[in-house]
C-alpha cells in the first residue's frame, strides 16, 4: 500500500501518517512546512518538501510512486483569518486540492481521503449532521465545501472513490503552538508558558466540542480499508461542547496555573459549533472518547517538553477592513 499524505509534517497529518505506517503503508509525506515542522514527520516516511499548488511536482510524485491512496490534509485552516486572505485561502485550499484530484484521477488512485471541516455547515444548524445542506459563512468553509463537491463530481465522472471527514477543533501533540490565528488550546498553552494572559475574543461563552487527536486520526488512516466508508461524508470528533472560558480553566489546571483572561473585541464567528457522530461510530466503531481534561493534560505534558514558540504574524493580509486589531502585523 503506497500512500501520499499531504500536510504530513503538520498536526493532524503527522498523526495520520504515523497510523498509516503502523498499518503497513509505504508513506510519502508532502509538506511545504508553512505550518508544520520537519521533525514531526514520523520515522519511516519519505519526506518531500513542496506545495500542493505545484502541479508539476505532484505529477512527478505520482509518476514516481504510483500511489494507491491519497490522504489530503494540507490546508491553511484559519477560519477567522480566511476572510482577510481570500486569494491565499482559495489558492491553497481549492486550487491545490484540485491539483491533487487531477493526479488521483489520472493515476487511478484507489481512494482519496479528504479532511474537510464542520465549517461547511455555517451557523444555526445544531447539532450539525451529515444530511444537512452546508451553508458555510467564511471563505475557509466555502473552500472546503467546494473541494467536497469537486470530489463528488470526480467520482461521478471518473469513478474516483473518496472518503470525506469533517473534523472539528482537534487538539493534541504536534499542534503548532506558535500559530496565533487558530487552535485555541495551543494558543492558550503558548501564552501560559510565556507568562502572558489568555486572549479570549468576546465574553468567552462561545462553545466548541474540542476533539483529542487520538479520537480522530486513527479512523482517518484506516478509512481506506472500510468499503462502507467509500463515497461517504463523516463528522468526526468529540460530542460534548465547552465554553472557551471553561477551556481556559482546564488548560490552566493542566499547566498548574490560575489563568488570567484578556478579553478582546468579539470576532464575527459562529457562536456555537458541535456535531453528531452516529454515522462515524456505526462505520468505524464508537470506542471510548478521551475526555477534555485527559486530552489537555496529555497535550500539556508534550507542550512542556516542546517549549513555547514565538507567534508569527501572517505577512500577506489582503484586506485590512474589519481585521481584529490583535491580528495586525506587529500587534
Write up what this structure looks like.
This protein is of the alpha/beta class. Helices cover 35% and strands 16% of the residues. A seven-stranded parallel beta sheet has the order 3-2-1-4-5-6-11, sandwiched between helices. It has a three-stranded mixed beta sheet with strand order 12-9-14. It is globular, with a radius of gyration of 19 Å. The termini are far apart.
Helix content estimate: 25-40%
The amount of beta strand, in percent, is 15-25%
Biggest sheet, spatial arrangement of strands: 3-2-1-4-5-6-11
* Coarse structural class: alpha/beta
Distance between the termini: 47 Å
**Biggest sheet: strands, sense, closure?**
7 strands, parallel
Low-pLDDT segments: none
Oligomer: single chain
Radius of gyration: 19 Å
Total beta strands: 14
Order of helices and strands: EHEEHEHHEHEEHEEEHEEHEEHH
Number of helices: 10
What is the strand and helix layout of this fold?
Elements: E1 2-6, H1 11-22, E2 26-31, E3 46-49, H2 55-65, E4 69-72, H3 79-82, H4 86-106, E5 111-115, H5 139-158, E6 162-167, E7 170-171, H6 184-193, E8 198-201, E9 207-208, E10 211-212, H7 217-222, E11 232-236, E12 242-243, H8 244-254, E13 261-264, E14 272-273, H9 278-284, H10 292-306
Parallel strand pairs: 1-2, 1-4, 2-3, 4-5, 5-6, 6-11, 7-10, 8-13, 9-14
Antiparallel strand pairs: 9-12
Helix pairs in contact: 2-4, 4-5, 6-8, 6-10
Amino acid at each position: 500500500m503506497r500512500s501520499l499524505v499531504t500536510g504530513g509534517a503538520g498536526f493532524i497529518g503527522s498523526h495520520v501518517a504515523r497510523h498509516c505506517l503502523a498499518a503497513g503503508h509505504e508513506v510519502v509525506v508532502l509538506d511545504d512546512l508553512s505550518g508544520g515542522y520537519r521533525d514531526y514527520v514520523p520515522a519511516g516516511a519519505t519526506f518531500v518538501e513542496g506545495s500542493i499548488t505545484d502541479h508539476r511536482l505532484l505529477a512527478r510524485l505520482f509518476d514516481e510512486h504510483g500511489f494507491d491512496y491519497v490522504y489530503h490534509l494540507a490546508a491553511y485552516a484559519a477560519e477567522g483569518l480566511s476572510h482577510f486572505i481570500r486569494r491565499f485561502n482559495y489558492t491553497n485550499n481549492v486550487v491545490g486540492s484540485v491539483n491533487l484530484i487531477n493526479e488521483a484521477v489520472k493515476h487511478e488512485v484507489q481512494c482519496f481521503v479528504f479532511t474537510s471541516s464542520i465549517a461547511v455547515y455555517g451557523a444555526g444548524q445544531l447539532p450539525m449532521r451529515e444530511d444537512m445542506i452546508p451553508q458555510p459563512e467564511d471563505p475557509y468553509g466555502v473552500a472546503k465545501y467546494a473541494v467536497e463537491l469537486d470530489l463528488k463530481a470526480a467520482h461521478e465522472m471518473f469513478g474516483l472513490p473518496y472518503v470525506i471527514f469533517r473534523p472539528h477543533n482537534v487538539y493534541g501533540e504536534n499542534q503548532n503552538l506558535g500559530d496565533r490565528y487558530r487552535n485555541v488550546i495551543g494558543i492558550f498553552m503558548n501564552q501560559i508558558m510565556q507568562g502572558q494572559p489568555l486572549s479570549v475574543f468576546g465574553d468567552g461563552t462561545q462553545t466548541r466540542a474540542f476533539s483529542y487527536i487520538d479520537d480522530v486520526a486513527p479512523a482517518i488512516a484506516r478509512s481506506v480499508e472500510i468499503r462502507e466508508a467509500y463515497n461517504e461524508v463523516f463528522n468526526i470528533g468529540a460530542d460534548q461542547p465547552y465554553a472557551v472560558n471553561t477551556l481556559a480553566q482546564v488548560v490552566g489546571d493542566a499547566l498548574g496555573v490560575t489563568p488570567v483572561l484578556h478579553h478582546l473585541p468579539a470576532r464575527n464567528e459562529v457562536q456555537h459549533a458541535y456535531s453528531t457522530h452516529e454515522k462515524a461510530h456505526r462505520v468505524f466503531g464508537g470506542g471510548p472518547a478521551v475526555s477534555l481534561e485527559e486530552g489537555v493534560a496529555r497535550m500539556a505534558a508534550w507542550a512542556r517538553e516542546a517549549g513555547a514558540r514565538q507567534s508569527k504574524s501572517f505577512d500577506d493580509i489582503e484586506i485590512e477592513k474589519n481585521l481584529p486589531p490583535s491580528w495586525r502585523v506587529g500587534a
